[in-house]
Specification:
By secondary structure, this protein is α+β, with helices and mostly antiparallel strands. The protein has 15 helices and 9 strands. It has 2 domains: 212 residues, Hypothetical protein, domain 2 (Endonuclease III, domain 1); 123 residues, Nucleoside Triphosphate Pyrophosphohydrolase (Alpha-Beta Complex). α1 crosses α11 and α2 runs antiparallel to α8. 30% of the residues are buried.
Length: 348
């Protein structure tokens, strides 16, 4: 049995019809690969269509403002991907004349493009024989070879890249790489893999040794950080509010949110109202009410955020206020958007 031939044959008979499989345009492939990093196809598909409609070429994306890009990306998460996407579009447009590098090494130099993305673009667009290794590929290889090497360790990253390279069909790397990823998504699934109908069930070590549920192995993440956010939702008589843009290297860089006071622990309403920072930001004689006594829990990969929203009716309109009607134009975290969705405009 030649692994690559069996795999590609499976792919031709089982692959999903996805829009980025109908093109070899590196811009379209790059767009899809960046969006699908740590994102399910079902979640990423609508964003792919939106971006293609708004920015049909790399030049269109490059000319957009970061705020426009982040707004369109809103809800997809891992916003550094969107910022890198925009920076790379400007670089390809301005420095490379709109032409993407045509090989793995050149692609690897683009911001936000790592080994996996460069391999995918190079093989799919230019048929360069470089192996891709993503989450689906790690799972297939770990099970097939019965490897317990942690996939998120330096040793594992090297080991599985070597295995994928050894299996690669150098005459048809585009089909092979897409087949291996698709096989992990549809057949060798994380839970309830379809082992009974798997074309490799006679040679899969994990199946033979009854270790399917134990592979792949992944090192545990670090300790989850717990953060306590208090958002001040200003509502003036002139129907204006305040939004601040997040800066720095923390979460949600470039997105907008209501003025925020973060505390080291969950405070009671009485305790929070006595906080000096709160009194400084709200001013004297403001009408204050707590929108949600029970914090909204927003879970990110390495931190959990406990958020409460305080409605503030100030005595005078805050400086740099924006009309409530224009909030929708600003890119905001999902946590803020969910609040806006359920907080009726009439409440303003």
């Amino acid at each position: 049995m030649v692994f690559s031939k069996v795999l590609i044959n499976w792919y031709l008979n089982n692959k999903r019809e996805l829009p980025w499989r109908k093109t070899r345009d590196p811009y379209k492939i790059w767009l899809s690969e960046i969006m699908l990093q740590q994102t399910r196809v079902e979640q990423g598909m609508p964003y792919y269509f939106r971006f293609n409609e708004a920015f049909p070429t790399v030049f269109d994306l490059a000319m957009a403002s970061q705020q426009e890009v982040l707004k369109l990306w809103q809800g997809l998460g891992y916003y550094s991907r969107a910022r890198n996407l925009h920076e790379t579009a400007k670089y390809v447009s301005d420095e490379l004349g709109g032409v993407f590098p045509e090989n793995f090494r050149g692609l690897l130099k683009l911001k936000g493009v790592g080994d996996y993305t460069a391999s995918a673009i190079a093989s799919i667009c230019y048929n360069e024989p470089v192996a891709v290794v993503d989450g689906n590929v790690y799972r297939v290889l770990a099970r097939y070879f019965g490897s317990a090497t942690p996939i998120n360790s330096s040793e594992g990253i090297k080991e599985f890249k070597v295995l994928a390279t050894e299996l690669l069909d150098e005459d048809n790397p585009s089909a092979f790489n897409q087949a291996l990823m698709e096989f992990g998504a549809l057949q060798c699934r994380p839970k309830n893999p379809l082992c009974a109908t798997c074309p490799f069930n006679s040679s899969c070590l994990a199946l033979k040794e009854n270790r399917i549920s134990k592979l792949p192995v992944k090192l545990k993440k670090g300790k989850i950080r717990h953060r306590y956010f208090n958002y001040l939702v200003f509502h003036s008589e002139e129907n204006t509010t305040l939004l601040n843009q997040r800066k720095g290297k923390g979460i949600w860089n470039g997105l907008y949110e209501f003025p925020l006071i973060e505390t080291e622990k969950q405070l009671t309403a009485a305790e929070f109202l006595m906080e000096e920072e709160f009194r400084e930001k709200t001013g004297k004689n403001a009408i204050i009410r707590l929108h949600n006594e029970k914090p909204v829990v927003h879970k990110l990969s390495h931190q959990h955020i406990y958020a409460r929203f305080w409605i503030i009716e100030p005595q005078k309109s805050p400086e740099n206020g924006i009309p409530v009607s224009k909030i929708a134009k600003y890119p905001v975290p999902v946590l803020i958007q969910n609040f806006l969705n359920e907080y009726e405009p009439a409440d303003y």
